[in-house]
Design a protein that fits this description.
The chain is α+β, with helices and mostly antiparallel strands. It contains 18 helices and twelve strands. The longest helix has 29 residues.
Length: about 500
């Protein structure tokens, strides 16, 4: 590598070997579960264990290994013991039966480098009072039925802006970057809910910068990192994940602080508090920083917002992009869902949120997209807080536990024609994504379920239905659906490697 010389690499190898020998000697004296009770797994190499078997797409590698070693398997990455579950039954035991014991977090090196695990809804231990406070705040003031109803007009407005942008591109017969366009929509919905302002623009390079920043955070957190396997190597930052994480988070926090400062200045000029209907999420959080017994600090707010921005923008826009990509590859399915939307919406001129419940085939398209392209293919890493038995095998304390929802969604023992995009498989069934049906859990389940699920299930169908109602789509430069690249890029979230570029063709006047 460029950052260290060959001699330094040799010294580093000797250091690792020495430390492993010391650790092995110490650990051999401890009582450990009998090997026969541990989950099966592939043979391990000295020192590195199974690191060489991960690859650039771990969810693929783990799925392939599970075909040999079964629905629960044990791997070792350096000093990190990991158990991977790849079946609905295993997912049920991890996410429900043993939810409390397996609700710990295994923070990555990138997370630790900004101490995000100390003030994060995603990474704090669920047993902590701070985690319960953060969860309560998001549940009551962000995604409660009352708040979702209060922000319905906002979502409609932002989707309308998306359609207006598409309309202008249609007039010019220009291809649109679907990933970026839907990201701007999700970004502006999120930023308005949080602090009543747009952060993105469809004709601005600034929005592309925000997307790159959010993507950078997701990649830094989820990418393989030597320091996750050998913690004492963290300061070397061999993969550059610490630097990328710090730079990206610093950039977002600088933006957050401009909004904080403006709100605090406005508050100091007005003695009368805002009307409840005009208060956004940051108004609520800032109130909790006041007084002698303040429950939050601005540091807490910054880290809460980091969670909400990264989880609420990239994942929603990516799901819409995957859905549209699959529909373009399957013209009969595209025609079927558009026919349903046209029939239900008629000549109203636009899709409303209240229409979504009348579109069962659209709902099936969204579920099928979640099945094949879950936003977080391995969910967020969990940690065993104590020894626990899963599927008849012992999972020792402090083991990292991963649920491969990507592999479960493509398991031929669970799904017929698992690699085909067939929304019909969900028609007439009550399978949902809310953590009840463990063959389809893209948002997780239990106490660690993604808190943004209610908002995502409003935004994704609304954006997708609106795009399909108002436009047909064609590939630029004479390309055809067979040319569409469906390669994935793995971070903690799953994105298309090459974003979808298509030309919108207006079907009707846009209100």
């Amino acid at each position: 590598m460029d950052i260290i010389s060959g001699q330094a690499l040799l010294l580093l190898f000797c250091l690792i070997l020495s430390c492993v020998l010391i650790f092995s000697t110490i650990r051999s004296k401890r009582k450990s579960p009998p090997a026969s009770k541990l989950p099966p797994g592939p043979p391990r190499l000295p020192i590195i264990g199974n690191i060489h078997q991960v690859g650039k797409n771990p969810h693929h590698s783990f799925a392939d290994l599970s075909k040999t070693y079964g629905p629960i398997m044990s791997l070792k990455f350096g000093s990190l013991n990991t158990v991977i579950v790849t079946s609905p039954e295993g997912a049920r035991e991890v996410l429900r039966t043993h939810d409390q014991i397996l609700s710990g977090r295994k923070a990555t090196n990138a997370i630790r480098c900004i101490n995000h695990q100390e003030a994060s809804l995603i990474w704090l231990p669920s047993s902590s009072a701070r985690w319960r406070l953060f969860r309560k705040l998001t549940a009551n003031h962000l995604v409660s039925p009352q708040r979702l109803e209060a922000t319905k007009a906002l979502r409609m407005e932002k989707v309308q802006e998306l359609l207006s942008f598409m309309n202008e591109s249609s007039k010019r017969e220009e291809a649109v970057d679907i990933s970026l366009a839907t990201f701007v929509t999700a970004l502006n919905v999120t930023s308005n809910i949080l602090f009543s302002a747009d952060m993105g623009s469809y004709d601005s390079k600034k929005s592309n910068g925000f997307q790159d920043t959010v993507t950078g955070i997701m990649e830094a957190v989820g990418s393989p990192d030597a320091a996750n396997y050998f913690p004492f190597m963290g300061f070397l930052d061999l993969q550059g994940n610490r630097k990328k994480m710090k730079d990206c988070c610093d950039e977002l926090i600088r933006v957050f602080r401009t909004f904080f400062d403006a709100k605090i200045a406005e508050k100091s000029l007005h003695n009368n508090p805002k009307d409840v209907s005009d208060r956004d999420f940051v108004d609520v959080l800032l109130d909790l920083t006041e007084g002698d017994e303040a429950e939050l600090t601005t540091y807490d707010i910054e880290h809460i917002l980091l969670d909400l921005f990264t989880a609420g923008t990239d994942t929603n826009s990516s799901t819409v992009e995957w859905a549209l990509s699959e529909l373009l590859r399957n013209p009969k399915t595209m025609a079927k869902v558009q026919e349903e939307i046209d029939r239900v919406i008629g000549q109203k001129g636009g899709v409303e949120e209240s229409d979504i419940s009348e579109l069962p085939y659209l709902a099936a398209v969204v579920k099928e997209t979640f099945r094949l392209h879950p936003a977080a293919p391995l969910l967020v890493p969990r940690k065993a807080e104590a020894d626990v038995e899963v599927l008849g095998f012992m999972v020792p304390k402090d083991t990292q536990v991963l649920v491969n929802v990507w592999a479960i969604g493509r398991d031929p023992n669970v799904w017929e024609n698992p690699t085909r995009f067939e929304p019909e498989r969900f028609l007439g069934k009550d399978t949902d994504v809310k953590g009840r049906d463990y063959e389809l859990t893209p948002f997780g389940a239990g106490r660690r379920m993604c808190p943004g699920l209610p908002l995502a299930m409003k935004m994704v169908p609304l954006m997708l239905a609106s795009l399909l109602y108002s436009f047909d789509w064609k590939f630029p430069n004479g390309a055809v659906s067979e040319d569409l690249d469906m390669d994935e890029s793995f971070g903690i979230t799953l994105r298309k490697t090459n974003t979808l570029h298509v030309v919108p063709v207006k079907k009707r006047a846009i209100n």
